[in-house]
Amino acid sequence: MAWLVYACLLVVLLASPASASRSLAVAGGDPTGGFTAVSLSESNFVVQHPYDLPSNARYKFDGGVRQLWVLASDKPHDRQSNTSPRTEIRMTGYDYSSGVWQFEGYGYVPSGTTGVSVMQVFGAGESATTLMLHVYDGALRYYDRQVVEEHIYDRWFRLNVVHDVDASTLAVFVDGVERLRVPGRGGSSHYFKFGVYAQRHASSCMESRWKDIKILKKI
After folding, report:
1. pTM for the structure as a whole
2. Multiple choice CATH, 35-218, 3.40.50.790, 3.30.70.580, 2.60.120.200, 2.20.25.10
3. For burial by CB atoms within 10 Å, which of 14, 54, 78, 207 has the most?
């Protein structure tokens, strides 16, 4: 009977989402395989911050780490905007409308930060974004919906977001493991953003840190 119990346990493990994700990681390898990194300079990193404050009041770039924070009471990034407070970096120079593009970066979200978008693919058909990754109570989520990665607080994680425009699909990898695959949302132009952008039930202070940012394109 022992062999039967073992066999049943093995079937359950292989069918579990975690095991499926591990299999994807092994089968797919490095998510950047087949991609080529584009050339980036500081001019490609445009900081959007509360309009009544200088950028260094909400943004710091030191030792290769970009630290971005915003308060729930802050102004929007533009005097004419009615959006929520944000300190985000808008990647410029590589807006795209076709092909397969990828964002890669190492992120860090300190505990206590919640109700916030930390990364987005901007541009869509009937909404502003094709993808947003939110943090709620220590979990990284697809918008405010399904969990992409649990236990995101207080650790560096590798984030890869692959957008196949022509196939209208997006895949999200955390630490090299595919955690999410969703359909696109249309739109004629897209670009990547990261940082902190207040959402529902935001904490009084929101912060994320980023390093080793890359934009890659499939050739």
Report:
1. 0.86
2. 2.60.120.200
3. 207
